Amino acid sequence: MYNVPADFINEQKVWDALENNQHPDPSRIREILARATEMKGLTLDEVAVLTCIQEPEMLEELYNTANRVKDTIYGKRLVLFAPLYISNLCANECLYCAFRASNKGINRHALSQEHIAREVEVLIKQGHKRILLVAGESYPKEGLQYVLDSVKTIYSVKSEHGEIRRVNVNVAPLSLDEFKQLKSTNIGTYQIFQETYHRETYAKVHKGGKKKDYNWRVWALHRAMEAGIDDVGIGVLFGLFDYRFEILAMIQHINELEDKFGVGPHTISVPRMEPATNSDMASNPPYPVSDADFKKIVAILRLAVPYTGIIMSTRETAKMRRETFAMGVSQISAGSKTNPGGYEEEDDISGQFSLGDHRSLDEVIRDVAAMGYIPSFCTACYRLGRTGQDFMDLAKPGDIKLHCGPNAVSSFKEYLQNFASPETVEVGNQLIQQTIDSMSGVARQRAEKLVKRVEAGRDDVYC
Ligand code: SAM
Ligand code: SF4
């Protein structure tokens, strides 16, 4: 059973906040930006003001403030992961997705455990350490056990090139008891996107299957946290409805999780709708989000929930990804495929949607490093039990830099030694030296020590 309070995601409150804060004057905007640099988050009204900024000069100030906050909390660190689509079977009818049940235009597969293991080997060989397991909402005859077994399979693959150290999961909402079973497989983050918080739009675009039930989905993160999953990920599919409404509604959702569990989501994903096989809606989103608005969304989220990671996937082009790193993105996928079995074999039509960035992990890493960002494969927090509230306690006083900075450097060094092309090694080693030179005190000592251990042949070192 689930009891969603009647006023949970209060649409009237969202519209009122937007109505009352239209056409904000520059002094009010600057006041809010100054408050945002205290890194304590923002109120619904303050966020509403930021969503209404139009003037280029004010937008520039918004971007610069987001940049400063991102730098203070995260430094120049970008966490990398690969999605692993284990199945594209689905019983739902989401009009924007190629996996929807009635789409006859794609080949359907649920990978066997052996096939999953082979896909994982390919990813490990590329240098990946984090996987996001993804599936449609219909499993082979074993039901949820299929997902549980798949997580176990991913962790069990040990190759001469290493292993996967954190499995995050994006599957349809589960019951409390099922979430407990999922937790017992040692997942990292459980993530689910509401797609749209606007109930009328939600009903229009989810035409069949269990996903039609807005409340079942919107309360999923409550059940997950109640089941003991500390790290949860939230998101909206941008393009379905007015992005300003979606941001404010998502802030309500986050506030509710913080009130109830003392900690909000670990990550926010910002998927923007991409073309998908046989979906008119995906090619012509009802509320297209321009590149300029998309950057604004990232900047506002960075200020509104400063300690929550922002994830950007390969849906976006390399150019857009570069532009948003500076303003708040802290995790990216790289070298992705969205069709089950896609890492072993090409299949252009069976993916979930089209990708905007087709580069390999090595190319993405070289590009990111050339921009001065340290690609991080670190999984220390999760493995040391620094999740949920413990992670936030660490993050909030700014200590994140004392741990994550050195760990990012050593995990990057490990990547360079074991997986990178000669061109990437050159760019990467220079960046590691510059990064260590820019560090001081404990962080620097730790980084130097960890890098020396990696150079001496040790893998998987962290603090
Ligand atoms: N099937 C589960 C569900 O819907 O929650 C989990 C996996 S689903 C494959 C992951 C996400 O892909 C969805 O939540 C949706 O936001 C996103 N997605 C679906 N169609 C998309 C499209 N055309 N462009 C971009 N993202 C899309
Ligand atoms: Fe199925 Fe998820 Fe795609 Fe909807 S978004 S059709 S539930 S895979």
UniProtKB/TrEMBL annotation:
Its cofactor is [4Fe-4S] cluster; [2Fe-2S] cluster. The keyword Transcription regulation does not apply. Pfam families: BATS, Radical_SAM. SUPFAM superfamilies: Radical SAM enzymes. Residues 76-315 form the Radical SAM core domain. GO terms for biological process: sulfur compound biosynthetic process; water-soluble vitamin biosynthetic process. Keywords: 4Fe-4S, Iron, Iron-sulfur, Metal-binding, S-adenosyl-L-methionine. The keyword Iron applies. GO terms for molecular function: 4 iron, 4 sulfur cluster binding; catalytic activity; metal ion binding. This is [FeFe] hydrogenase H-cluster radical SAM maturase HydG.
